């Protein structure tokens, strides 16, 4: 039932989701779950129910979109925003409030992080307003509640929680002074009327969304984002999306780890030379995956065995690595699908799917999987290296250099942590 292409087409039409970006297994699992809840016995029965019920359509979208976010994710983006906001206010002589857009805003962690960062930078409440938009009514309602559990607070520096939250029995409640800076609404970026009558925004956050679309939809969405961003504004994107913007005339503002782009940005900063660290060799009994060399590429992909924790999920990850390293691509891909059917998605599975697609010569599919791995784990070294090699082979040298620089920084950070 669940692999019926009608459901893939429905999600593509409604929210622009490209099935290759997440893998069929995630969508199939969501369709099975909703079919069971709806007590549908066949694919046709559930399809008819889906067509009749707006609530069920939204429920299926909610089942596919699993929010994965936390406060101050990619912290350098918020530090950069604060510096740029102070400069922008001076530039416009404080004649109006700054306008910031967070789309998709998910369950609110990002727009509230924006507000906290600007308040902490000394901006007064009347100097800025934040607009948060998401396609999911459930996510927007959770954002409006402003109550968060411990999973929304990650990293070592949680001092902001003491300043901007009050702890209660049901979780951490965001302070009214932060909540009042943020306006939240339900909206679809593919809706041509979205924000049609609104002035442009000084800063737009649209992170980890473009990677879920095929190339025509990416172009459509980019055109919308460009129209929403002030001509002198800055667009913040996800760590795996820089090369996509580069192809459309946007340039990095040159602040490492900020993932910030502008139409009139400074030229890209020189990238440090990238010398990949030798990867662990596969077991002697396992032949490495034979990867096709790419012209002008200095990165040589390797099959890398995983040292997984002793668990059912860990065992399956180890099995995927073994099958891939033995050249059993079909079996390895099937094991990846089994993992995604039974467990929450992890970067390593999408990395293997990318590698397997790479070996099979499916460059666009591989690129989608590598970007998904980087969404889940932005500093995944192997995904960074392989995606860089893929972009280089496609002629996107600037995008490849950016990824190589990130991989180099990841390698240095990993080496320093082990000293």
Question: Can you tell me about this structure?
Answer:
By secondary structure, the protein is α/β, with parallel strands linked by helices. The chain folds into 3 domains: 60 residues, no CATH class; 188 residues, 3-Layer(aba) Sandwich (Rossmann fold), CATH 3.40.50; 106 residues, Serine Threonine Protein Phosphatase 5, Tetratricopeptide repeat. Helices cover 49% and strands 11% of the residues. It is built from 18 helices and 10 strands. The strands form 2 sheets. It has a 7-stranded mixed sheet. Strands 3-5-4 form a 3-stranded antiparallel sheet. Helix 6 crosses helix 7 and helix 16 packs antiparallel against helix 17. The longest helix has 21 residues. The chain is globular, with a radius of gyration of 22 Å.
How are the SSEs placed, and which strands pair?
Elements: H1 5-15, H2 19-22, H3 24-38, H4 43-52, H5 54-64, H6 75-91, E1 98-102, H7 109-120, E2 128-134, H8 137-145, E3 147-148, H9 159-164, E4 165-168, E5 171-174, H10 176-179, E6 182-186, E7 201-205, H11 215-228, E8 229-236, H12 242-246, E9 251-252, E10 260-262, H13 312-325, H14 329-342, H15 347-359, H16 363-376, H17 381-393, H18 397-417
Parallel strand pairs: 1-2, 1-7, 2-6, 7-8
Antiparallel strand pairs: 3-5, 4-5, 8-10, 9-10
Region (Disordered): 400-419
Domain CheR-type methyltransferase: 1-241
Biased composition (Basic and acidic residues): 408-419
CATH class of the largest domain: Alpha Beta
Order of helices and strands: HHHHHHEHEHEHEEHEEHEHEEHHHHHH
Helix content: 40-55%
Instruction: Write down the CATH topology of the largest domain.
Output: Rossmann fold
CATH architecture of the largest domain: 3-Layer(aba) Sandwich
Overall strand count: 10
Tell me the distance between the termini: 52 Å
Number of helices: 18
GO molecular function, one term: S-adenosylmethionine-dependent methyltransferase activity
EC number: 2.1.1.-
Keywords: Methyltransferase, S-adenosyl-L-methionine, TPR repeat, Transferase
Enzyme class: transferase
